[in-house]
Write a structure and sequence with these properties.
- 41% of the residues lie in helices and 13% in strands.
- It is an alpha+beta fold.
- The chain has a domain of 129 residues: Endonuclease, Chain A, CATH 3.40.960.10.
- The longest helix is centred in the N-terminal third of the chain and has 29 residues.
- About 29% of the residues have low confidence.
Length: 197
């Protein structure tokens, strides 16, 4: 993820002085805060558009596989503002964020940890991959994304079974195991033996 300096230019308010006995109070400071927030959002959107226009080769390579419902028929967005961050890729349906990290990210580990913690607090799963992994092991990266999606709860239950989730205790080391877990029904509770119930 690339980072932009989002410093704000704060203009002095042109509002008239308050009447005697009236301070600036919540009304003016609340309006100023709303103005600052809308300016911040506008800058964030502008930065996101710039990032989409100037993708790195690594982002282009992964985006080719994620775009237009090509990957597991899921909708991904790229360079999407979420809160005060711009994430590389997001699938809102599964609340999954994918971040690509180049060499500069080793120098901003604290920032990345702060971002990840905030995003997880908002209910997202965050996957981070090094650029070199995308360039040299794209299939492995896509496999890890597949496994993560398969292990997350589906957004809505299946109308046929009433359940849309995998076994919560399940972990998988390969796509074959994920498919097996997905296809196996959840275990039934044991029936009491005769005379125990």
């Amino acid at each position: 993820m690339r980072q932009f300096n989002l410093t704000q230019n704060r203009n002095e308010s042109n509002s008239p002085l308050p009447l005697a006995g009236e301070g600036l109070g919540e009304r003016v400071s609340g309006a100023k805060a709303a103005e600052d927030e809308s300016e911040r959002k506008a800058r964030l959107l502008t930065n996101a558009k710039t990032l989409r226009t100037h993708q790195t080769e690594t982002e282009q390579r992964l985006w080719y596989h994620l775009r237009a419902h090509r990957f597991m028929d899921l909708k991904f967005k790229r360079q999407k503002p979420i809160g005060r961050f711009i994430v590389d890729f997001v699938c809102e349906e599964h609340r999954l964020i994918i971040e690509l990290d180049g060499g500069q990210h080793s120098e901003q580990a604290a920032y990345d940890q702060q971002q990840d913690a905030w995003l997880r607090g908002q209910g997202y799963t965050v996957l981070r991959f090094w650029n070199i992994d995308v360039m040299q092991n794209l299939e492995g990266v896509l496999e890890q994304i597949r496994i993560t999606i398969a292990l997350t709860l589906s957004p809505s239950p299946s109308p046929a079974s009433g359940r849309g989730e995998l076994k919560p205790e399940a972990t998988a080391n390969s796509l074959g195991e994920v498919r097996k877990l997905r296809d196996d029904p959840l275990p039934q509770s044991p029936r009491p033996l005769a005379g125990e119930g």
